[in-house]
Amino acid sequence: MTPSPALLAARPHAPASAPVRDVVEAVPAVLVVDLTEPLAGFPDHREFVLVPADASGLLSWLQALAPDGPRFLVAPAAAFFPEYAPVLPGAALAELGLASVQAGRVYALLTVPDGDVSGTTANLRAPLVVNPVTRRARQVVLSDPTHPVRCRVRR
Fold first, then answer.
1. Residues paired with residue 10 on neighbouring β-strands, in sequence order
2. Is the separation of the CB atoms in 21 and 11 below 8 Å?
3. Mind listing the domains of the chain with CATH numbers?
4. CB neighbours of 126 closer than 8 A, spacing ≥ 6?
5. pLDDT tens readout for residues 39-93
6. Could you tell me which residues are beta bridge partners of residue 108?
7. How far does the chain reach from its first CA to its final CA, in angstroms?
């Protein structure tokens, strides 16, 4: 089997004669997650996939599996906000099967207003929390008012 031209174009470092196994191993992994509760405004979508959005691995797309489903830009909150330490309700941790927030992955949903990257904000009030083992996830709305809905992202 020969790799598709599109796959080879996406990985220019892989020569056309490279075995498929080598090319496939170079493709970043994706993580399929099931939301225990749908995101606000999207009641029909619970199955999503986290797909790398850049080569650094800092940005990902949270893409619904449904063909017409929504897509959100997300990033690990700690990558941009190292001091961010949300306190999750015990019920949310139990629902996700996490012993602590540190056992999960915490993502911030990002907004890029009018495509202006310099104005990017992160929602720290309602992080997406993922159990990487069970692949269960949910957006947890925090009651702590110190975490803003629109926090400017600076790197």
1. none
2. no
3. 28-152 (2.30.290.10)
4. 109, 139, 140, 141, 142, 149
5. 989 999 999 999 999 888 889 999 999 988 999 999 999 999 999 889 999 999 9
6. 75
7. 43
